[in-house]
Write a structure and sequence with these properties.
The chain is of the alpha/beta class and 221 residues long. The protein has two domains: 124 residues, Rossmann fold; 62 residues, Winged helix-like DNA-binding domain superfamily/Winged helix DNA-binding domain (Arc Repressor Mutant, subunit A), CATH 1.10.10. It is built from ten helices and five strands, in the order βαβαβαβαβαααααα. Helix 3 packs parallel to helix 4 and helix 7 packs across helix 10. It is globular, with a radius of gyration of 17 Å. GO terms for molecular function: DNA binding. Keywords: DNA-binding, Phosphoprotein, Transcription, Transcription regulation.
Length: 221
């Protein structure tokens, strides 16, 4: 049995930190540190080396976006998975955080069950948010942002390009398999190869790349 996830919670509201910590601890998840701003979060992560960080976007001094950039830009053998916390489901800063390498986002009114499931999910290396939500987020903000994830898609095979295009349109692995008449294991292999070839952390970043390279365009069916 694997060890429980180790988590750092970064939020400028003490009640939010306490509430999340209690929920996670009740499910056997180890909260190793709390932080009230981005600078404290960076220091806590470097000290504790957690598996997952719950990162509020809007904090004083150093905000969650800058803290995410600092943590994921620094070389590390096993960088933490970062879940962005927001009170807005289409906050433009969330898009920038995804481009910086965050594994997804949660609304602060998330249910206890969803919070626990989210931490355990990203700990395994998967992206947190549904592709359809990511698509909506990226479609809204891609034209307004300077692309941070430009990649050369020529390294992908025609089949991998097809998988990436459908993935970016919001299809799950099961839906991809049905659409392409492939097994789910084969689809997962294609997705893994896409992430490896494009040097991406997870599906969330892959969707951002698909839009920023115009493989998929906002508003397209």
């Amino acid at each position: 049995m694997s060890a429980p996830p180790r988590v750092v919670i970064a939020d400028d509201q003490a009640l939010v930190r306490t509430g999340f910590a209690m929920i996670l601890a009740a499910d056997g998840i180890d909260v190793v540190a709390e932080a009230a701003d981005g600078a404290q979060a960076v220091a806590a992560v470097r000290r504790e080396r957690p598996d997952v960080v719950l990162m509020d976007i809007r904090m004083p001094e150093v905000d969650g976006l800058e803290a995410t950039r600092r943590l994921l830009a620094a070389p590390a053998e096993a960088p933490p998975r970062i879940i962005i916390l927001t009170t807005y489901d289409l906050d433009r800063y969330v898009y920038a955080a995804l481009a910086a390498g965050a594994s997804g986002f949660l609304l602060k009114d998330v249910s206890p069950e969803h919070l626990v499931a989210a931490v355990r999910l990203v700990r395994t290396g998967d992206a947190l948010l549904a592709p359809s939500i990511t698509r909506r987020l990226v479609e809204r903000f891609t034209p307004r942002e300077d692309g941070a994830l430009h990649r050369d898609l020529s390294v992908l095979t025609p089949r991998e390009l097809e998988v990436l295009q459908l993935l970016a349109r919001g299809l799950s692995n099961a839906e991809l398999a049905a659409s392409l008449h492939l097994g789910e294991t084969t689809v997962k292999t294609h997705v893994t190869r896409i992430l490896s070839k494009l040097d991406l952390r997870d599906r969330a970043q892959a969707i951002v790349v698909a839009y920023e390279t115009r493989l998929v365009t906002p508003g397209s069916p």
